[in-house]
Design goal:
By secondary structure, the chain is α+β, with helices and mostly antiparallel strands. It has a single domain, classed as Alpha-Beta Complex (paralog of FGE (formylglycine-generating enzyme)), CATH 3.90.1580. It has eight helices and 13 strands. The N and C termini lie far apart (43 Å). InterPro entries: CTDL_fold (IPR016187), Sulfatase_Mod_Factor_Kinase (IPR051043), SUMF_dom (IPR005532), SUMF_sf (IPR042095), TAT_signal (IPR006311).
Length: 361
Amino acid sequence: MTVRFKLTSRTALYGAYAAIAVAAFAAAFTAATAASAVFSGGQQASAFDVLNRSRPLSALGSEQQCERYSGLPSHWRDDPKAGMVHLRGGEFVFGSKLGYEDERPAGDGKTHVGGFWIDQTDVTNAQFAAFVNATGYVSDSERQGGAVVFHTPTREEMNARDLAWWTWVKGAAWNHPTGPGSNLEGRMNQPVTMVTQADALAYARWLGRDLPGEAEWEYAGKAGHEGAELDTAPRDAHGKPTANYWQGVFPVLNTNEDGHVGLSPVGCYAANDFRLYDMIGNAWEWTRDVYTGPHQSHTNGDTAAVAPRERKHDTPMVIKGGSFLCSRDYCVRYRAASREQQEADLPASHIGFRTILRDAS
């Protein structure tokens, strides 16, 4: 279903989004706020295992630490697993009964994944730049001549067209994040974005790694938990956001309660119980899996709608984790079980990735 509307005043703008929020999300998430949190313990809780002992884990988790971070993990290029942690395989509930229809578990949802190493953070601009410098790789956004970029729309733009917050910007690329003339100065510690799935796979294979499957990603994202807290906006005991997502009225008012408007450096918020940063919010993350299941309209706005008309549509793939654009009134995908579709070859400013290295079977 596509929601179309015209807005003539700021009051109408806020009212329209409130109506969308009530209609689209109230039923799906009411149960989550009433349920109690449960920690599953057992096999999942111990998945962060002894292989991580004595490894130099990234010293992140606060604003001061993430701002100082260079974007390159300790022992980068000397240690083939630099910046990664090991997770023992185990069983978990894949999906959620409290979210969208396409998140529903199959049967009881119990799913087993094997062990694997996974990046503690999203791949950064610094890491992707090292790959490009070593290989001469040319990204899809550079070959296509542009990428989809988010901006806060004006009232006039909102009245003029749907999805007014998305624009195809000629010359935008991973290394030119807002278009020609822009660069990565001051952004080397941010997630690399405007990369396609093929770009992400090329980087992963350079290091002998892969992209996670959807189940592997969600196993890491849930970090041993199986409670209703997984389906609510991430906040600490004092009510402060613990991830980079949108607070306010999307797309016109970001109250900046989490301390960041737009992308943040990696690792500004505390890690989950598997020592992984930014599994929720900041940038969506590519997986290697094709999107299947009940196909829903892109609640965060279909980026393909603003791509050049001559562009051929590619296979929709699963992206996970939500981004800085997910809000309570639009998207609601700042959750480990959340999933969205993105055309494999469409670069956008809110999608990045992390890599894994599976254990030998």
